């Protein structure tokens, strides 16, 4: 089972807690209670793989900003939530995204743009097209409009975020494999299998969903020891040496014997 830490960020009152509680507990919060920090856990299967998700529901951007950096450092993926009834809440996400990229020191951070409270059509001030435009300017990050009240796209945003984290992990392992030795860890194998089978989901970047479209520890393989010469090949080598030594001895000892024979003939 893999442990992933997800962080829900956004302005106060956009419905971050409603989304989180609806996803984790299947309940809708009909009263507003400003959040300082709430942590939830949910175990689930995604693409036939088990996950233990820790979801951090944070305070609004304007409150407790000193704690925000700690949330970002520890998080693996981020839901950036605004309310379609509050234009300022979308504007606040611009600075928040830049802060995430700066702290993570990467342009490739798993995140999903979420326009919440899509059920409040009479109070809407931000269109779906505006959300799509922001998504495009952010590099086509996945964008959804959600409704915690109607349970619209609530599970989809969290599942999409988990799949993005899986993709980033796979890319990181592929880079390690190309610069070092082949990776043989179970995490790499399972992620690669998921990626080749298409189970990580179709074309995650740039996905747009709204209520009208609603759908209900690596190990490196060390090289073996160097080959040591042994067996028949080494025996032949020793045999050759042993044959050479006696032949040299015989050729040297044959000369004195011939001299002895000559002396005997002269004496006669």
Automatic annotation (TrEMBL):
Residues 181-268 are annotated as: Disordered. Its main location: membrane. GO terms for molecular function: G protein activity; GTP binding. SMART domains: RAB, RAS, RHO. It is an enzyme of class 3 (hydrolase). Keywords: Cell membrane, GTP-binding, Hydrolase, Lipoprotein, Membrane, Methylation, Nucleotide-binding, Prenylation. Its EC number is 3.6.5.2. The keyword Manganese does not apply. GO terms for cellular component: cell division site; cellular bud neck; incipient cellular bud site; plasma membrane; vacuolar membrane. It is found in: Cell membrane. Residues 213-222 have a biased composition (Polar residues). It catalyses: GTP + H2O = GDP + phosphate + H(+). Belongs to the small GTPase superfamily. Ras family. This is Ras-related protein RSR1.
């Amino acid at each position: 089972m893999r442990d992933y830490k997800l962080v829900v960020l956004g302005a106060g009152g956009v419905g971050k807690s409603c989304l989180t509680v609806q996803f984790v507990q299947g309940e809708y919060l009909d009263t507003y209670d400003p959040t300082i920090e709430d942590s939830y856990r949910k175990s689930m299967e995604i693409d036939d793989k088990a996950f233990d998700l820790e979801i951090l529901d944070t305070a609004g951007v304007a409150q407790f900003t000193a704690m925000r950096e700690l949330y970002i450092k520890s998080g693996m993926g981020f839901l950036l939530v605004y309310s379609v009834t509050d234009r300022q809440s979308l504007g606040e996400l611009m600075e928040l995204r830049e802060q995430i990229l700066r702290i993570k020191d990467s342009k490739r951070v798993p995140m999903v743009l979420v326009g919440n409270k899509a059920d409040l059509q009479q109070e809407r001030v931000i269109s779906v097209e505006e959300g799509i435009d922001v998504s495009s300017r952010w590099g086509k990050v996945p964008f959804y409009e959600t409704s915690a009240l109607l349970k619209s796209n609530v599970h989809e945003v969290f599942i999409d975020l988990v799949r993005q984290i899986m993709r980033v992990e796979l890319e990181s392992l592929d880079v390690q494999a190309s610069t070092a030795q082949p990776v043989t860890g179970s995490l790499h194998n399972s992620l690669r299998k998921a990626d080749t089978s298409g189970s990580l989901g179709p074309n995650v970047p740039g996905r747009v969903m709204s209520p009208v479209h609603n759908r209900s520890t690596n190990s490196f393989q060390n090289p073996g020891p160097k080959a040591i010469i042994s067996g028949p090949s080494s025996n032949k080598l020793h045999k050759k040496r042993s044959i050479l030594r006696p032949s040299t001895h015989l050729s040297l000892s044959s000369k004195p014997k011939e001299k002895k024979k000559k002396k005997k003939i002269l004496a006669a």
